[in-house]
Design a protein that fits this description.
This protein is α+β, with helices and mostly antiparallel strands and 240 residues long. Helix content is 60%, strand content 19%.
């Protein structure tokens, strides 16, 4: 069983955000300045985000542990099959993160514009929101680069369970409330050529239903294991 935290970075980030939020709220309550309202607002806003992030990834970590204990199939992808998986996952992460960032920045833009018409406190709030938007943009860039770098360094270890899958060191959880497997497609191996298992799943987010596609290459020797895995996934989700 995995002992290292799969979501340790996210939990650490949540802790740092909560600490910064606490400092902002404390300064807003204790120090008498014209920025009190803005500090309290931004501190509370950041604290809510930190709590949500911590709760979300704590749950994800618990599900990850169950996946590792109850695998349907486990294999190591190598060679050209691994290269293709790396490229496909990297492209998907870039597109998904960029779309999420654009939507988030749009709402920040609205708050910034409204704040400009609310007097000194409002303008200060707009400035704080602009700073946070820049920090989030930088963080999104760093996180994207980190995730892609992690994929490129991956060993091709794949674990598939009824609840989720570990692919390229990334955990995909389709057992959270509102999540579902939308499509399972099996492209069987031909002769000694590798086959492909395609799992498309989606989850509800604040911007709607977010979809992810996993293309998992497998050696022809794994054909019976893959067919068993597909049947188990289909049976499990037909019962939900």
């Amino acid at each position: 069983m995995e002992k290292k935290l799969q979501h340790g970075t996210a939990l650490t980030v949540a802790g740092v955000m909560a600490l910064i939020a606490a400092v902002m709220i404390a300064v807003g309550l204790v120090v008498d300045t014209q920025w009190n309202y803005a500090l309290l607002f931004m501190g509370a806003f950041l604290l809510v985000i930190a709590v949500v992030v911590f709760a979300t990834f704590t749950y994800q970590e618990s599900v990850f542990r169950k996946v590792m204990r109850e695998p349907l199939m486990e294999l190591n992808v190598t060679g050209t099959d691994l290269d293709k998986m790396v490229q496909e996952n990297s492209d998907a992460i870039r597109a998904q993160n960029l779309l999420s960032l654009i939507i988030m920045l749009f709402f920040f833009f609205i708050i910034i514009v409204v704040g400009l018409f609310l007097g000194p406190d409002g303008r200060m709030m707009s400035l704080m929101m602009l700073i946070i938007a820049l920090i989030i943009s930088l963080a999104a860039y760093i996180i994207t680069k980190y995730r892609i770098s992690k994929i490129k360094r991956s060993t091709g270890h794949v674990v598939i369970s009824r609840r989720g899958a570990l692919v390229h060191g990334q955990f995909h959880n389709w057992s959270i409330p509102g999540a579902r497997i939308d499509k399972i497609e099996l492209k069987p191996s031909a002769g000694t050529k590798s086959g492909t298992l395609v799992i498309e799943y989606s989850a509800l987010t604040r911007t709607g239903r977010n979809t992810a596609i996993l293309n998992i290459k497998y050696p022809y020797q794994y054909e019976p294991h893959v067919q068993y895995t597909v049947s188990q996934l289909q049976n499990y989700y037909s019962e939900k």
